[in-house]
Design brief:
By secondary structure, this protein is an alpha/beta fold. It has helices at 6-15, 20-26, 31-41, 57-65, 69-77, 92-95, 101-108, 115-132, 154-159, 172-179, 199-206, 232-239, 263-266, 289-293, 310-320, 341-355, 370-382, 405-415, 433-443, 460-471, 483-495, and strands at residues 98-100, 138-140, 163-167, 187-192, 213-218, 247-251, 275-279, 302-306, 326-327, 361-366, 388-393, 422-425, 449-454, 475-481. The protein contains 21 helices and 14 strands.
Length: 496
């Protein structure tokens, strides 16, 4: 491996770009590996999970070494602790393509406990960064306090920006300044911390010329109420970007006291959408559900609508299913109409195997009737690309069934897709050891299986059986997860 040329190493390290631990190990092999890995590590050095940046002294040392002598003297006079002079082996900032305001705050706080000192050092850092970072692509500006946009180099740097993450607490004037030269964003993520509209953000959306990905996440305390649609101005601005937009992700908290939401009128305009993720059932009042059922998105690949009815989701699948690869929702978080659930769940299964030949990841909820198991078998036989299946079986009254696990395993034995490698059993399923062993025996010779459950009691005999099949390589992973971890995979799959 140490003999590989630089081009091959670069391609390998590119595949590891989000795996900081592996890349850090590569630095220690030899100089060639180090020289190849450093530009990849420093492309976005603020993004690695598991790193406590507030204790990352090595990053603080690198930042401090970039400061000019007069700035160093100023900082020393302000009683900021700086390491002794070191010569840098690389021009690290020249590789950097990103700024993360909060992470940089954490790193610079290592030098001083005084807010004034930290603020001044941050300002000097951004001034220097604007000079050194020749190709800025990603900017997380949440909680920004610095007038970065007034630096002489700002216009050139932000013209090239591809991805921006911000929040609504930021002064609108920051967005007005940014919108003058930042008009080619491809990805925009907004964290909404206040129901009051931020008109600067509206302006920023309006000036975009190639926006492909839009994400809105409400993050304010429960209990806010308004008589108006708090998303209206954002959606009106977004509507004008329908031609370029291919991903729409909305997470909206419950807001009461308005009778109409604009989303139902705007959604049909996003005809090029490939990823549609909506979490917020109050977006759709009863009168407008029929409109939602009529939506057709012929490019749609990922569908995740939480807090809605199976018949609504089924209708979207029927109109848009040919390219769908992921249909995900929390199966016990959909709206259950007890009298209609039997019919709707049958309709849902049928529409999947009838319209979604490419489906790979699927959430499914159904009643434990013979007709449902027959339809499930047709789905498994017809959807050859299925890789991951999340299942919950509910009785007509919405309660969780305890005694249908064995029938489910028999269906899986008879018709399991070749590519299936992950099954998630929601809530309580009961299998006899004999039935589970029969299923695992049938699984031999296929992909090693990952199985996840939540809310189950796994006894010693079951654990022993599972461990035996782990040793044989039939089971790759078996976990009985907490609810939040179990459901967290939906977000990971949607954005993976």
């Amino acid at each position: 491996m140490s003999k590989l040329n630089k081009d091959i190493l670069f391609l390998i390290f590119e595949e590891l770009r989000e795996d900081s631990k592996s890349l850090f190990s590569c630095l220690m092999v030899n100089r060639l590996w180090c020289e190849t890995a450093i530009p990849i590590l420093w492309r976005n050095p603020w993004c690695y999970n598991g790193i406590n940046y507030s204790n990352k002294i090595s990053l603080f040392i690198i930042i401090s070494q970039y400061l000019f002598d007069d700035i160093k003297e100023f900082i020393t006079n302000q009683e900021i602790q700086l390491p002794s002079n070191l010569s840098l082996l690389f021009d690290y900032f020249s590789y950097c393509r990103s700024i993360n305001i909060n992470i940089i705050k954490e790193i610079i706080s290592i030098g001083s406990d005084l807010n004034y000192n930290q603020f001044n050092m941050q300002q000097k850092f951004y001034s220097l960064f604007m000079k050194k970072c020749l190709e800025l692509k990603y900017f997380d500006m949440r909680s920004i306090k610095h007038q970065i946009f007034q630096f002489p180099e700002a216009m050139v740097r932000f013209e090239l920006l591809c991805e921006l993450k911000c929040d609504t607490s930021i002064d609108p004037f920051y967005f007005y300044g940014l919108s003058q030269f930042c008009q080619y964003l491809q990805r925009l993520t907004i964290v909404n911390v206040d129901i009051k509209p931020n008109h600067g953000i509206i302006k920023l959306i309006e000036v975009q010329k190639n926006l492909k990905y839009f994400q809105w996440d409400d993050d304010f305390d429960d209990g806010y109420f308004t008589d108006n649609d708090p998303y209206e101005k954002v959606l009106l601005a977004l509507e004008k970007k329908a031609e370029s937009l291919n991903c729409l992700r909305l997470f909206a908290q419950y807001v009461e006291n308005y009778e109409h939401t604009l989303l139902q009128e705007v959604l049909p305009k996003f005809y090029n959408i490939k990823i549609l993720i909506i979490d917020g059932y109050h977006f759709f009042n009863e009168e407008k559900l029929e409109t939602l059922k009529m939506q057709a998105y012929h490019e749609l690949e990922i569908l995740n609508i939480e807090g809605n009815r199976l018949d609504v989701i089924s209708s979207i699948i029927e109109n848009s299913g040919a390219n769908l690869k992921k249909i995900l929702f929390e199966p016990y978080n959909i709206e259950y109409e007890y009298d209609e659930f039997n019919e709707n769940s049958l309709y849902f299964i049928h529409k999947i195997y009838e319209n979604c030949p490419l489906i790979e990841y699927l959430s499914i909820a159904f009643s434990p009737t013979k007709a449902h198991f027959v339809e499930l078998e047709k789905l498994l036989e017809g959807c050859k690309n299925l890789k991951s299946l999340l299942i919950v079986i509910l009785d007509d009254d919405g309660t969780y069934s305890l005694n249908n696990g064995e029938e489910l395993l028999r269906v899986l034995i008879r018709s399991m897709p070749t590519n299936l490698k992950e099954i998630r059993f929601c809530r309580k399923f009961k299998f006899s050891l004999e039935n589970l062993e029969e299923f695992l025996e049938e699984w031999k010779g296929r992909h090693a299986l990952s199985m996840f459950t939540t809310g189950n009691d796994i006894d010693d005999d079951c654990t022993k059986l599972i461990n035996e099949y782990k040793r044989e390589g039939v089971i790759e992973k078996f976990e009985n997860l907490a609810y939040v971890d179990f459901i967290g995979y939906i977000a990971n799959i949607c954005f993976g």
